Amino acid sequence: MTDSTDWRVTISLTGQAHVEQAQQSFSEKEVEEDVSSRLGRNIVVGSGDSQLFLYAGTELAAREAERTARDVLGQLGIDAEFSIDRWHPIEEKWQSPDVVMPQTEADRQAEHQRLEDAETTDSVAAGSAQWQARAELDSHREAVALANKLQAEGYPVVRRWKFLIVGANNEYDARVLAEHIRQEAPPGTQVFDEPAGVRLPFIPF
Prior knowledge:
Elements: E1 7-12, H1 16-28, H2 31-39, E2 44-47, E3 51-56, H3 59-76, E4 81-88, E5 93-95, H4 105-126, E6 131-136, H5 140-152, E7 157-160, E8 163-168, H6 171-184, E9 190-195
Antiparallel strand pairs: 1-3, 1-4, 2-3, 4-5, 6-8, 6-9, 7-8
Helix pairs in contact: 2-3
């Protein structure tokens, strides 16, 4: 038994009515229990506007879920397109099983560096930060003082009453910037590094 959902079967249907019909039929025919009884693995069912998703912990469970779902939809006369993806923990997105996962620590570090470089390239191309450090302060006065201090250091700051945002090129730069802001900020300030939500100029490092 596993609680992992690193594998996903995407079932693309022609409309919401088919999604609801298929989802109801999956429940009635107990797709989850069928896979569980065969493999001892759990399946989690989700849905979108015109898609159903079957989440599994292993490739074998995902392919068994796909087979069962094909059988169910075939009996209903519902046409669908199927695909299987695997969650990439470094890229943080679903990818084809053909994409090779990093196997060693050196592989993981190289993959992470490649992702950081790609994010920086996107920042340069878009002319705006892809990541940001966000600080939430206890008062407007503290926010103004911290913004002035960071601006004096050369950072372009966006300030909104009691919080401020500074853009970064990639996840690593955002993390380093957030740590710097923690050191500059008064006690009690909450600082986060996160994907950018505010358009900011590209910041050279």
